[in-house]
Amino acid sequence: MLEILYDIRCSIVFEHHFYSEGICTDIRLTPTGDTIQALEDHGLLVKNTLGKTHIFQQISAGVPEVPFTEPVCFSFMASLTNSAIYNLFDTGGIRQFHLTNLNSDGTFRDTLTQDEYLSQHEILPRITPQKFNFELRKGAISKLVIDFFDSTGWNTVTTENIDPKAEGIELTFIKPGKYRITKQPLPAGETSLILIASDDAYKSTPFFALIDIWLQNDIAFKTLYTAKIPGRLFKFQYIFTDVESKQINYDIPIIVRGKKHILDTISAESDIAFSELEIADPPESKIDIVVAQLKKTGSDRIYVVESVSPLPVLENRPASVKLKAGANEVILPVPLLNDLQIIDNKAVVFFNI
């Protein structure tokens, strides 16, 4: 019986501090239509497992059954299976990225990002279908120079002469990928337009990242491509409602503290310290409005505390935050992903005492 063997050519993984193992299990990769065919042509299989995407290559006698004759690009769309996780990404409001293992000059690298973490360098360019109308100002330019980006860098693939009476030109890109369009002469204040031409990406539902993995024969088997997503930190704020002011003797000092987690970047503290706020801070915040509304509900006492240092929301942070008043002690819930309430960069927990 013929045995077909496969080995891991490379793996793709996203990392974020929220997850217990550090691997983001809420991102799933799907190959584009062109990539599905390219995978089959090169004896490759894709498998998603436990937050990792593995590309397997068929081998025979320890070598690839279908070796690469030239570098080949395999494109994947990364989607969030739980959109709530985006609240924990510190991406500066950027919602879509373009990741690749090629440097800007076309040379290979062993990471998917230019810096250690996902950053503005990976902002997704404009996405277009592979056939679209490029608008022009009548008589402003004479040519369009179109370059394609691959493992040799930028290379001119065509030059389009422009009719001086034209207000647009229909462009067709046979191959999906990254293109650069330069007007000649280049109008003052303008730069070349970088875009991704891909019918699949253009028609797709919103995705988190488009990933272009370039493979060639000298890339080692089991290469791991990692994209680290910067994590957002929050000040944990607890808003307590003491129903009818009956549960706590406010003449006794009230202390809220929590045990430090290994991922808490608190330098000098062994515990998580909280401080009481007379009103929710800052005064103009939405929290202040919420507290003011609560105080109008009657004789309930409102008590607000906030962690001195910002903290990460974690998948399995132990419920170690406690409220103590004299001999009385209450274990408080920690902010959880799927019911996270974020106001002014604070993770807010409402708690009835």
Outline the structure in words.
This protein is mostly beta strands and 353 residues long. It folds into three domains: 5-124 and 200-228, no CATH class; 130-197, Immunoglobulin-like; 233-352, no CATH class. Helices cover 7% and strands 43% of the residues. It contains three helices and 25 strands. It has helices at 33-41, 199-203, 286-295, and strands at residues 5-15, 27-31, 44-49, 52-60, 63-64, 72-80, 97-100, 126-128, 131-135, 143-150, 153-161, 168-172, 177-184, 193-197, 209-215, 223-228, 233-242, 254-259, 271-277, 301-307, 311-312, 322-325, 328-331, 342-343, 346-352. Strands 17, 18, 19, 20, 21, 22, 23, 24 and 25 form a nine-stranded mixed β-sheet that branches. Strands 1, 3, 4, 5 and 16 form a five-stranded mixed β-sheet that branches. β13 (177-184) and β14 form a beta hairpin. The radius of gyration is 27 Å and the shape is globular. Residues 280-284 have low confidence and may be disordered.
